[in-house]
Amino acid sequence: MVTGRVELTQFHTPAAVNVTPHNAPSNALGIRRIMFAVDDLDAVLARLSPHGAEIVGEIAQYENFYRLCFIRGPEGIILGLAQQLT
C-alpha cells in the first residue's frame, strides 16, 4: 500500500541559482524541509554522513514513541528523519 509519494526533479537548464541563505534554520518560513519515516535512524545517519549530510541541532526523542532529527544536505536542503519506537 502506497501512503505517499515524492517527486524529485533536476533542472539541466537554466542553471540553478541559490536565492536563500545557505544555513537557514530548520524552522525558517517557507518550504525548506520534508520528513521521512525510517526504520533505523542511526543506520540512515551513518549512510548519509559520508555524502555531506550534517545533523542540524541534535537527535531528539519524543517520549517512547519517536526519535527524530533534521539533517542538512550539501546543497543546504533540510530533511527530517523520524524513527517510530513503538
TrEMBL record:
InterPro entries listed in its UniProt record: Glyas_Bleomycin-R_OHBP_Dase, Glyas_Fos-R_dOase_dom, VOC_core
Start and end residues of each VOC domain: 1-84
Pfam family, one: Glyoxalase
Superkingdom of source: Bacteria
Gene3D superfamilies in the record: 2,3-Dihydroxybiphenyl 1,2-Dioxygenase, domain 1
Name this protein carries in UniProt: VOC domain-containing protein
Species name: Herpetosiphon gulosus
Biological classification of the source: Bacteria, Bacillati, Chloroflexota, Chloroflexia, Herpetosiphonales
